Amino acid sequence: MEPTFVRIRIIVGGIVQGVGFRNYVFHWAKKLGVHGITRNLPTGQVESILEGETEKVESLVRLIKHGPKISEVTESKIEEEKFIGEFMVFKILR
Question: Out of 3.30.70.100, 3.30.565.10, 3.40.50.1820, 3.40.50.300, which CATH number does the structure's domain 5-93 have?
Fold first, then answer.
């Protein structure tokens, strides 16, 4: 069976900046083989755009919703977008 691919935008809020959240997302994205970006937003939230095999992206979404131990995710907004294969790697944007 051929793998299916998805693109997900997830924005999380709470205690998510200044706690290594983007590095956490980067680590797991690399480990799972998911491509995309993660960045801090001026609102205090963290946005991640994820592209890859459905199963791997869903695993990463679960990890993001939990966050690293010193973070506290109190809200998450998830949007599925059309997969376009925009990313070849995963990057942290400053």
Answer: 3.30.70.100
